[in-house]
């Protein structure tokens, strides 16, 4: 069974840890992650500006998530310098940048890094071109830069009306397109909706391959809303807005968390403007989407996030039950 996951940020990294378990169990025979390269903040943003390369940060996190090498090497790849001119840079970002300059090709640098860390799947960028995310808000303001967009939204309490890439006419690598076309299942999310998920689908090659693919499409819904991106979104709102922006069909299936975080941790998130995503499962059924709603939250005293073990278990159920569903392709 071939599975392709599309996204970015910590959401995709978490999903890949779940999918890695299913690779080890033999449930998944081929796994590919397609990762956004529109990130523009922190170490990634500085390296993009200095070396004119696609964003390496999300790629680095996904490589580590799928890595089967020794813990020391994984820690090295994630190590962030604390002093001097390298302060704030992650070693893995510098490594990917150096490999890009040595090989002359960002895609090759990602492939070599996957070999070095012995990943249990392929990791591919959505494009190898140096793209920037741009958004227009309801007040007419246009903001350029993945890291600046949610900041403006939070500060001014404005919603995103339009979103696009600059340059707009960019292509996806052939291998990226093929991984979508060949997949038996395509999984989108979880992750920052406008800045990690949507950027992939602003690339026409990816959107068209997704449309043409006969894979069963699964959308993993975020557990919490994100300030500046999905304030007030219900579970179904994520899918509805995805369809509105991309013009694609609704997915065949959706995975939704139903567990309410424990009170003390919930209070912390509420103070930061984040709320549990309401699992309005009836709206999925009304739009012919098979919904799998369960407790997906991990046991963590500091963060509310999907548990890789729980996600792996529900995905096994999704794969098993969808084999008998008469879903549209």
UniProtKB/TrEMBL annotation:
InterPro entries: CofD, CofD-like_dom_sf, Gluconeogen_factor. Keywords: Cytoplasm. GO terms for molecular function: LPPG:FO 2-phospho-L-lactate transferase activity. It is found in: Cytoplasm. It comes from the Bacteria. GO terms for cellular component: cytoplasm. It holds the Pfam family CofD. Its main location: cytoplasm. GO terms for biological process: regulation of cell shape. The keyword Cytoplasm applies. Belongs to the gluconeogenesis factor family. PANTHER family: GLUCONEOGENESIS FACTOR-RELATED (PTHR30135:SF3), UNCHARACTERIZED PROTEIN YVCK-RELATED (PTHR30135). Required for morphogenesis under gluconeogenic growth conditions. This is Putative gluconeogenesis factor. It comes from Aquifex aeolicus. The lineage of its organism: Bacteria, Pseudomonadati, Aquificota, Aquificia, Aquificales.
């Amino acid at each position: 069974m071939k599975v392709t996951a599309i996204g970015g940020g910590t959401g995709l990294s978490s999903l890949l840890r779940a999918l890695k378990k299913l690779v080890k169990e033999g449930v998944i025979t081929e796994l590919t992650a397609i990762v956004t390269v529109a990130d523009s903040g922190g170490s990634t943003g500085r390296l993009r500006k200095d070396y004119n390369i696609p964003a390496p940060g999300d790629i680095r996190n996904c490589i580590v998530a799928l890595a089967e090498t020794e813990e020391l090497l994984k820690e090295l790849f994630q190590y962030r310098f604390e002093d001097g001119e390298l302060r704030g840079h992650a070693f893995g970002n510098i490594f990917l940048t150096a490999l890009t300059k040595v090989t002359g090709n960002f895609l090759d640098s990602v492939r070599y890094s996957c070999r070095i860390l012995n990943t249990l799947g392929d990791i591919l960028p959505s494009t190898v071109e140096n793209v920037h995310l741009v958004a227009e808000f309801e007040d007419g303001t246009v903001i350029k830069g993945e890291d600046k967009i949610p900041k403006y939204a939070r500060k001014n309490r404005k919603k995103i009306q339009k979103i696009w890439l600059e340059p707009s006419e960019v292509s996806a690598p052939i291998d990226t397109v093929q991984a979508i076309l060949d997949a038996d299942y395509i999984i989108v999310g979880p992750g920052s909706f406008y800045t990690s998920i949507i950027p992939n689908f602003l690339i026409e090659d990816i959107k068209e391959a997704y449309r043409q693919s006969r894979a069963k499409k699964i959308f993993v819904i975020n557990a919490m809303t994100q300030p500046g991106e999905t304030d007030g979104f219900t579970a179904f709102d994520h899918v509805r807005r995805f369809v509105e922006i991309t013009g694609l069909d609704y997915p065949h299936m959706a995975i939704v968390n139903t567990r309410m975080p424990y009170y003390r941790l919930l209070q912390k998130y509420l103070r930061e403007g984040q709320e549990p995503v309401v699992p309005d499962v009836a709206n999925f059924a009304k739009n012919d989407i098979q919904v799998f709603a369960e407790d997906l939250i991990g046991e963590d005293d500091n963060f509310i996030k999907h548990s890789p073990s729980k996600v792996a278990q529900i995905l096994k159920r999704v794969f098993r039950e969808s084999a008998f569903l008469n879903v549209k392709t």
